[in-house]
Amino acid sequence: MVDQNAAGLVAKRRAQSTKRSFASMRTISALVLREMSTRYGRTPGGYIWSLLEPIAAILFLSLGFSLVIRTPPLGTSFLLFYTTGFLPFNMYNNISNTTARAINYSKALLKFPAVTWLDAIFARLLLNSLTNVLIMVLLIGSVYFIVDARSTVDVPLALLAVALSIFVGFAVGTVNCVLLGLFPLWELAWSIITRPLFIASGVLFLYRDLPEGAQQILWFNPIMQITGMMRAAFYSTYDASYASVSYILGVSLALLTLGLILMGRYHQDILNR
């Protein structure tokens, strides 16, 4: 009799867990569609324009930098060199910023019991990750067409760099989501602190070309290592052995764990502000 009751209780819990998972997936899908309609539905071309705009911006930036820096530190095309450095940085930056504003963006909907703070965060992570991956594919394809590149791409290494960029951005964004909710001035402070990150992430230079002292400091920047991995995927002669996947994962997991714990503790305080 006891065994039957225990089995029934386990089956009930499994059914509740399955039901909640299905409900969360529906909620996340609804939040994704809502953001697409509110963010992209107000502009001509909608979502297509949101893809073309950053692609055009990156191409024009590459053209401008190429006029100043004639010979890239790697390869013969500055357009390809700049693109392979900028894309992982841009992916991290975009995902971390949008994830950090997830609670504020969906605060009105979080008053409903069916919508949780995890749903809001995962919805923004999913939409912006897919958008940035699509931008990356279109941009790299355009660059290869423009420069007529014939080099072989290490696809698994490139995908690893993309996944790590998303993971680091998600982890940093989750921590900042709590800090922005509790301390509104943190957004300004964070923008000032991270302003040199574009330079410190190796978008315009190579890690191997830095002085030893600068290498020892910038090695601790996970984005610098991810940038090196992305370049190694497109340049077979480039050695990115300094990049440590275990270090990147360790830092990201630590930040993500901290962010989730703090969000679980303070999300009601943030919503009531």
What does this molecule look like?
- This protein has helices at 2-40, 47-68, 78-100, 102-105, 117-147, 155-182, 186-193, 197-200, 212-218, 222-234, 245-271.
- By secondary structure, the chain is mainly α.
- Helix 5 (117-147) crosses helix 6 (155-182).
- 34% of the residues are buried.
- Mean pLDDT is 83; it is low at 4-13 and 15-20.
Short description:
The protein has 273 residues and is mainly α. It has eleven helices and no strands. The chain is 75% helix and 0% strand.
Quantity of strands, as a count? 0
Nearest-integer average pLDDT: 83
CA-to-CA gap between the ends?
50 Å
Helix and strand sequence = HHHHHHHHHHH
Q: Strand-residue fraction?
A: under 5%
Our count of helices gives 11
Q: Which sheet architecture does the biggest sheet show?
A: none
Structural class: mainly alpha
Kindly state the percentage of residues in helix: over 70%
Gross morphology is globular
Low-confidence stretches: 4-13, 15-20
How big is the Rg? 21 Å
Identify the notable features of this structure and list them briefly.
single chain, 273 residues, mainly alpha
Describe the SSE topology.
Elements: H1 2-40, H2 47-68, H3 78-100, H4 102-105, H5 117-147, H6 155-182, H7 186-193, H8 197-200, H9 212-218, H10 222-234, H11 245-271
Helix pairs in contact: 1-5, 2-3, 2-5, 3-5, 3-6, 3-10, 5-6, 6-10, 6-11
